[in-house]
């Protein structure tokens, strides 16, 4: 409602407020709609996602998690429309895995054909626990920006980020911290207001030609998201080599990319040309991806897990000799294999330094690693990874394993941000991360021994998220696993 | 325009969220009491905004931890634990700052011991959790109502910490929905029953200064509030202003 009440941008004028004070109905005059009046009622809470307290459940069968805002239309007969849009507001620091915590909402919106805005600060600053000292700036996540661009590309439905200006933006600029180019001209919340008002008018007015304004606003937002993605994928710890060479992120193509995305989203059409971010293939991943590294601490993992990671990780300090040995270790050991052949067998990831997921082409070797690390691992899980049966047709057709080692649990319970990890990864790579090739290994020693029961009972959103995306699940602590449905 | 369909759009349960929403929306309707903090919708999980009583300037404490580390599970608090409130409202009476710190619950039976000390400690604690009064502000509103970062070495950041404690009044409040939370007709309200519940809470002598009962009535579920104040709070100008805030929905039994 604060968006709509900004009359200069929204062109809606508040003329009355009726109804209960906690669920008011605002009557607004639409200055762009031939002075038509529109009524908006604030319903300030949902109830649960599955057990709504309202006569219609705007979340039901669409969202696994509650978004902050959903707008629906009530018709004269009392029926309720599908949501016009959903908005998520965040003021938390984008530290660590916070960035992807809400990714599931973005996917749910895109899959349901619902326009989605994620409003977050352009930059934040971490403090110590007592709020006395500043620590480091917390930059936006290039991954989540790319994930949402990819969703937009795949579904033709806007999944957009809005960057809110805060006092920390000027502070960051004055401190020489990196901000996206042209950040001073970012539209921020004004873009969001323009968009939501356009979507409202498209539904509420019999005739509304807002396409030009819609495209213009989409163009601005896409440009900002690409700017964020490009800027924050340049850090050594977050460099994304596959995306950095993608035509959609090339500065030369910027105007064209923005035009293509704005047109597609205004027409609700997926992107199908070279700028499509959702079509990154296995070949592109292997060709442009980089070596994988992930920490495995003795205090939180088993020896078996650490052995697996030691084989998948490229050592931090790597000479060419070490790299060659690593690549060789992933060969199939067949006579006649040459380096070129072996190049496509060693694990690759999408992010320099520490990464959340890795593509493992050599499923045969990976099966051996798992079998040795977890002697009691179910045969069906091992066969899912690679069958020892002489079935070369099947093995040849199998995609590389998309392997996600996930921490998942702190001592106090499951890690809420990790619920969004798999959704974010799928958003970034929907063409190559499928149930048939995604294996999740939950490695925290705090993982409950009753995890299989939790999966079956479906009352825990972390496991629901894992079950949804993973074709196979292994738990490090217990050394057992399951095949997904 | 027929808005009846919207008016008929009523939740099956209001609960704690309804209590929070009522208080938040009441505050938005007036200007003498300032909302420092509330849970969404309309508020932020992590930001407190306090107005300096002399300069009238607004300061922001952002990224406040969501849960003080010292709070035990199941809300079992000791008298030294800090408890994050669900809402905080500020009234400046000349150079005296008054903070109404609210813990809201779906029902009366969810009251727990040491609620009032917990709400106070959220501001004053120096132990496991550094209370709000001891934390520096990071941002200050400018003329455009945007916020700018205050320089790290600027002592202005610590104005709240350094403000005379005798001029900072904390008024812990327990707000809950009655059982049942909805009444078809206010005339049938068991006013005295609800009022006695509020008095009983204050009579626990555990440091609460206000008890609020927020319910709903009528065809379209209009909210009502019944309130009881401690003797001390009832003497303050803040209590008069608070009654003005509640006035649109305040229910007082007429004799």
SS strand fraction of chain B: 15-25%
Helix/sheet category of chain A = alpha/beta
- Poorly predicted runs of chain A are none
Distance between termini of chain A? 42 Å
What shape does the CA trace of chain A take?
globular
Q: Span between N and C termini of chain B?
A: 40 Å
What percentage of residues of chain A falls in helices of 4 or more residues? 25-40%
Radius of gyration of chain A: 24 Å
Helix run count of chain B:
7
Number of contiguous helices of chain A:
19
- Shape of chain B, please? globular
Instruction: Give a count of the beta strands of chain B, DSSP E runs of length 2 or more.
Output: 11
Based on helices, strands and strand pairing, what is the structural class of chain B?
A: alpha/beta
Task: Detail the poorly predicted runs of chain B.
Answer: none
What is the oligomeric state here?
heterodimer
Instruction: Return the average pLDDT of chain B rounded to an integer.
Output: 91
Mean pLDDT across residues of chain A: 90
Salient structural properties:
heterodimer; A: 485 residues; alpha/beta; five-stranded mixed beta sheet; 19 helices; globular; B: 255 residues; seven-stranded mixed beta sheet; four-stranded antiparallel beta sheet
What is the element layout, followed by pairings?
The complex is a heterodimer of chains A (485) and B (255).
Chain A lengths: L1 H4 L1 H4 L1 E7 L6 E6 L5 E6 L27 E3 L13 E5 L13 H9 L3 E7 L2 E4 L6 E5 L3 H14 L3 E6 L2 H8 L14 H16 L6 H22 L8 H4 L9 H13 L15 H7 L14 H10 L7 H10 L9 H5 L14 E3 L2 H11 L5 H7 L6 H6 L3 E6 L2 E2 L2 E2 L6 H8 L9 E5 L8 H7 L3 H9 L2 E4 L4 E4 L2
Parallel strand pairs in A: 5-6, 6-9, 11-14, 14-15
Antiparallel strand pairs in A: 1-2, 2-3, 4-5, 7-8, 10-11, 12-13, 15-16
Helix pairs in contact in A: 3-4, 3-17, 4-7, 4-17, 6-7, 7-9, 11-14
Chain B lengths: L3 H4 L7 H14 L5 E5 L9 E4 L6 E4 L25 E7 L2 E10 L9 H10 L14 E3 L5 E3 L9 H4 L5 E9 L5 E2 L7 H12 L7 E8 L4 E8 L1 H4 L2 H10 L9
Parallel strand pairs in B: 5-8, 8-10, 9-10
Antiparallel strand pairs in B: 1-4, 2-3, 3-6, 4-5, 6-7, 10-11
